């Protein structure tokens, strides 16, 4: 009986060949792990970027809306100092604003090229805009976009205009300062565009007249009353009240909110 055995040289060659194969397998596994890890990192960065962009758009919209409301509310009131300077020449008269038409602003970021189906607006779904006794009703075809909806609203019987504002929200504005805008939709179609519950009815803003100053009782004492009103206005101004002119020329949103006494509103809007 013969016993076949490998030489030490052949055993050594076989060992190193096995080691090279194992090393190559380990390198391939490490490369795969690195690729998978990088893919997960890229996915996390992408999701974070999307969430951050959505949050920034929401905060910007809230800031713009809050500042506009603040300025619109303060622009109709006159300062005490200005009332004192006007004197008897403006007695009995009050400044007034022009009526502001009803404006509907959605809450969902979108573009003119956004497909309605991606927002949950299904084929056959409807979006209706009522202004006074006129109604524009749009029905989705399934492959239409937000731009198609805007064109239909602008050319419809309802006396309104539709557009996308700088914050990427759908804005529908009445062309008449007396009309009330009401928005409806089948199912959740209206909510898909940002006009859900509690954001589906919009009224115009009527002008507010400032309080009229009392007229002078006679020509002889008109000058003294003018001086007294001027002094009262100056003392009121020095008491810490900030006039609407100061609010309108403030350099930042924070200073405007602080000047109006609405401290903390800026932080609340960021929440």
Question: What's the arrangement of secondary structure elements?
Answer:
Layout lengths: L7 H67 L5 H7 L16 E3 L20 E6 L2 E6 L6 H9 L5 E5 L5 E5 L6 E5 L3 H4 L8 E2 L19 H16 L6 H5 L4 H7 L5 H6 L1
Antiparallel strand pairs: 1-5, 2-3, 2-6, 4-5, 6-7
Walk me through this protein's architecture.
- 45% of the residues lie in helices and 12% in strands.
- The chain has 271 residues and is of the alpha+beta class.
- The N and C termini lie far apart (90 Å).
Core attributes:
single chain, 271 residues, Immunoglobulin-like, elongated, disordered C terminus
Brief synopsis:
Helix content is 45%, strand content 12%. It has 271 residues and is of the alpha+beta class.
Head-to-tail CA distance between termini: 90 Å
Rounded to an integer, what's the Rg over CA atoms? Answer: 34 Å
Would you identify the CATH architecture of the domain at 103-202? Sandwich
| Shape, principal axes of CA atoms | elongated
Computed structural class: alpha+beta
Question: What is the CATH class of the domain at 103-202?
Answer: Mainly Beta
Mean pLDDT equals 76
Please give the number of β-strands.
7
Instruction: Tell me roughly what share of residues is in helical segments.
Output: 40-55%
* CATH fold-level assignment of the domain at 103-202: Immunoglobulin-like
* Alpha plus pi helix count: 8
Main pleated sheet: 4 strands, antiparallel
Which residues form runs of ≥5 with pLDDT under 50? 80-95, 212-220, 230-251, 262-271
How much strand?
A: 5-15%
What is the H/E string? Answer: HHEEEHEEEHEHHHH
What strand line-up does the widest sheet have? Answer: 3-2-6-7
